[in-house]
Amino acid sequence: MQIVLFEPEIPPNTGNIARLCAATRTELHLIEPLGFSLDNRYLRRAGLDYWPDVLLNVWPNWPAYASSGKLRRAVMASARGGEAVHRFAFDVDDSLVFGPETHGLPPEILSGSPHNVRIPMSNPHARSLNLSTSAGIVLYMALAVCGVLDTYRLA
After folding, report:
1. Spatial contact of 99 and 7, defined as CB atoms under 8 Å apart
2. d(CA 50, CA 72)
3. By CB count within 10 A, which of 14, 136, 138, 150 is most buried?
4. In sequence order, which residues have a C-beta less than 8 Å from that of residue 106 and are 6 or more positions away?
5. What is the pLDDT of residues 96-126, one digit of tens each?
6. What is the DSSP string of 4-28?
7. What is the DSSP string of 93-117?
8. Which CATH number fits the domain that encloses residue 128?
9. How many structural domains comprise the chain?
């Protein structure tokens, strides 16, 4: 399982996701351009002292990542549609792909995979959830579906 952030914009969100990835031993791929420097203090603060445990890869663009051999089955997360996350048949080798905070995945990336998931919300006025919240929900749902959580120690 891996998390892919396509052109993330907000440092604390990426820092929180890095911390999530460190805690779950999930690879994190960042697709440039980034909306911040990896030296950003807010990014580092959000990730706390977990950064040494983050399996981090930074790619100059989507084609470089897609052709690297690291991209597995791309599961695109979108507030605009897709199968409800709790009904999706995740696989342990999935690449969970999330778009930028302000506008999500662009159509040309989103349409590159038939595997799209969304997080159901009961409030029709809520456009979307925070990126780091969404990444946590989708990752833990995927880990649960794949039976990986059974191998984790209790906190």
Report:
1. yes
2. 25
3. 14
4. 99
5. 999 999 999 999 999 999 999 999 999 989 8
6. EEES---HHHHHHHHHHHHHHT-EE
7. T-EEEE--TTT-S-HHHHTT-S-EE
8. 3.40.1280.10
9. 1
